[in-house]
## 1
Amino acid sequence: MAIAWSEKASSMEVLASPPSLSPPVILTQDELKKIAAYKAVEFVESGMVLGLGTGSTAKHAVDRIGDLLRLGKLKNIVGIPTSKKTQEQAVSLGIPLSDLDSHPSIDLAIDGADEVDPYLNLVKGRGGSLLREKMVEGACKKFVCIVDESKLVNHLGGSGLAMPVEVVPFCWKFTARKLQNMFESSGCVAKLRNDGKGEAFVSDNGNYIVDLYLKKSIGDLVVASDGILRIAGVVEHGMFLDMATTVIVAGELGITINNK
Ligand SMILES: O=C(CO)[C@H](O)[C@H](O)COP(=O)(O)O
């Protein structure tokens, strides 16, 4: 049976509230992201192999890990970055890096998300790194997702923002049309993502991203996922179903930790 975040909220523990000050402190979205990220880094222990996420929320976590390494509070960390951008950030912070070939089992990954439903299914990839994120986070014993409360939705696609699908550049219009037709009854419009300079956005893997905009729920998520992956030309999609083991949500009322 479908549930909504508002129903779930009554059963969630608020772990930390901002201090009660007068006048009330309004935290920015970025401050909330940082609070969630710092909380997640409390799960990190010396000696761990860590999946390092991508995006403005994950960036705070990577910064924090770098700080703790520099201060000697964490030791012997190996990071597995989920994008070239995170790789550059981690190198600049002196975090030792490796890859899935050498470290096929990861202790813990920390990453953001674009949407989180009440079952802790996610949409990821508005930053364009969904393939590497799915590979790394799929290899994790624990995947802690960190979001501010604006990312909570009652069903995936519910924010009205993009549901990303990574496709090969070859005949991308053909693939985009197939995707749009597949979700026609959900009012789907498929658009090629651009890089903001008039060209197609190209992922770290040399692929394009087709963003699906949905007016209605796409129904059964496993059926939708399987359907998308059966289209030749699709590399991966941004639905992360049953992957997050914990979602940390930072909001004006404090932090909630939601475990699978
Ligand atoms: O999936 C992602 C990148 O591919 C990001 O984690 C997601 O887009 C959230 O980004 P942000 O933390 O900047 O809101």
## 2
Amino acid sequence: MSFEVVDKAKLPYIYTADELISMFLTAYAREEARGSTAEPAFVKQKRLEIRRIVTSGKLLASTLRDMALRMPFLDKLHPFYRELIDVVYGAQVYKHAVAKVGNAHIAIKAIAKEAITAVRTAADKSQLYKARKMYQARVIDLLRDLAPELDKLREVVIYLRKLPSVDPTLFTIAVAGAPNVGKSSFVRCVSTAEPEVAEYPFTTKQIHLGHIILKGDKVQIVDTPGLLDRPLAERNAIERQAVLALRHLANVILFLVDPTPHSGYSLEMQKRLYDEIKTSFEAPTVAVVNKVDIATQEELEKARELFNPVAHISTLNCHGTREVVDYVLNKYYVPLALEKLREIRRRA
Ligand SMILES: Nc1nc2c(ncn2[C@@H]2O[C@H](COP(=O)(O)OP(=O)(O)OP(=O)(O)O)[C@@H](O)[C@H]2O)c(=O)[nH]1
């Protein structure tokens, strides 16, 4: 099953209810009288009124429809994004808001149709005036009633725009570990270009998102500051779910260990975190010992016993980092890529 990914460029601008009301009234007032001067004034006025209703109604209906259609369709969205939206806003609340805004365009059309009938059957100027007032009042009421849903969608769009541009369809290496162990340094060392820096929800910390280009193929590498550095039990429900949304992103978790007292976290604490991550995620976890440039033999030995690491590196000078990536890709990415290729050949 293929999932959709949030395309920030395609997210709509969500108007507030007040902006829509002002757009509606401006469009209404913009229409001016046209047609033959020989026409009786009342007939001319009726025709102008109808044109005003049609123009303002159409503009409003298409704006509402467009906003709803361009919001991500939750059921088709990749689980990484779907879970994040669910955690922050609630899937039902989101779906309800999109549906209400989308359906409002049908209601606007119906109101406009009734208003046109009222104008056509108006016997005199006062009835015409009443029809206009009624039309405007009903549209404005409907838009005011839509205000909470419009505000909700506005919040979601702002939230999605701020999310790092992770592509959940790419093979992803998530770099985990206690604070200060060298996660962002690692991402910088192995990324083909300068990593993107963005904020991950629920953390005040910045996430580094890098890419590794492999013979035309692209692999994603991301650090997880503030996300995987505390046991799940110590987190509130929202944080816990945000961590779990990572489940859908990581194909392999690289756990960096700092064997020195430099990061301020003991090896025992790092081991507890390592065990927690190993049991909470389906993705395989690979331990790597960092900061070998300052670690003592004794510290390295202790880390080796506890973590059985696949490599010793230093992200200070990027020593050994490329080899770690090659190891991970050979072990976890190449078999997947080959399997994909076989699948394509089977289908061909
Ligand atoms: N000596 C030495 N210092 C390192 C090495 N790798 C990182 N550091 C230092 O450790 C500190 C933390 O490095 P970061 O890459 O920011 O660590 P982090 O794990 O991303 O930190 P958080 O974002 O707080 O989770 C910095 O002062 C780095 O210069 C290393 O291999 N050797």
